[in-house]
Amino acid sequence: MVDAQLPPIAILGAGSMGGAIARGVAASGSSRGIVVTNRSAAKAATLDGIAGLASIALEAHPDANLTAAAGADIVLIGVKPAMVPDLLEAVAPVLRPGTIVVSLAAGVTVATFERILGDGVVVLRSMPNTPATVGRAVTGLAAGTTADAAHVALVRRLFETVGAVVEVPEDKIDALSTISGSGPAYLFLFVEELTKAALAKGFSPADARLMAEQTVIGAAALLAATGEDPAELRRQVTSPKGTTERAIAVLQDAHLDELLGRATDAALARARELAAGA
Predict the structure, then answer these.
(1) Binding site, annotated residues for NADPH
(2) Residue 73: CB partners within 8 Å, gap ≥ 6?
(3) 238 contacts 244 by C-beta, under 8 angstroms
(4) Which domain holds residue 259?
(5) Which residue in 9, 82, 107, 121 could disulfide with 274, CB within 3.0 to 4.6 Å?
(6) What is the value of pTM for the model shown?
């Protein structure tokens, strides 16, 4: 029988993403203990008082990363990519054999983790997105060279506390990041521009924002509730020779498909630059 409880977890660098995951795991009640670290007391305080979670500031406890890593079976690395190698070198000596180390850092490869941590530690690479803060993340998950099906299943359960999980080979993680990782920003930009269009048509700022935001939220809820193909839902709104059809024609004439292709290609190019240390 599979243990329903997750083992002790440490999240080193619990910023917005690490903090969201910490909250999700804690709220699920599925872990036997979570320790998170942050550099400042102010950041650590944002996670104080959450049941099942201990939040520690490095400025008050300089050895907190070592202590947290030594006591955990799963260690999530949430610091900025440039800080990852130094942190891995610091915690490598205290990790117990069989510890699972999961990267949250964009552009840092499994090979980098495995080279620094050495044998005996299992590595996985993840790419969550910011809707983790509301339990609606999409997380890409790639196994390292020594991670077996049981390791992947365990880490998958962890990330499923904050949303959906897509398992991919590591060479697809950067591409995934251009869709689900950066995708929320694309949608927020759309809401910004739709709000501006409403303002230009004479609506108040409050009404313009309400219309734009709730239209997107409602459309997403409809998509989720019906399970319909988005193209079919679009057709249902687009009456022949109607106003929506005219608007859609403008967007299609602007080659929205090509624009999104170029945008995601640009994001992928930058991800590869980051992986190369550029």
Answers:
(1) 65
(2) 7, 8, 9, 96, 98, 99, 100
(3) yes
(4) 183-275
(5) 107
(6) 0.90
The dihedral of CA 135, 140, 142, 148: what is its sign? positive
Domain stops at, among 173, 206, 236: 173
Q: Are residues 82 and 131 in the same domain?
A: yes
For residues 198 and 208, the answer to whether their CB atoms sit within 8 Å is yes
Q: Which parts are annotated binding residues?
A: 12-17, 65
Look up residue 234 and give its DSSP letter. Answer: H
Domain tally for the chain? 2
Note the pLDDT tens digit of each residue in 149-200: 999 999 999 999 999 999 999 999 999 999 999 999 999 999 999 999 999 9
User: Can you name the residues that pair with 77 across neighbouring β-strands?
Assistant: 12, 103
Residues annotated in a binding site for NADP(+): 12-17
**pLDDT tens by residue, 190-211:** 999 999 999 999 999 999 999 9
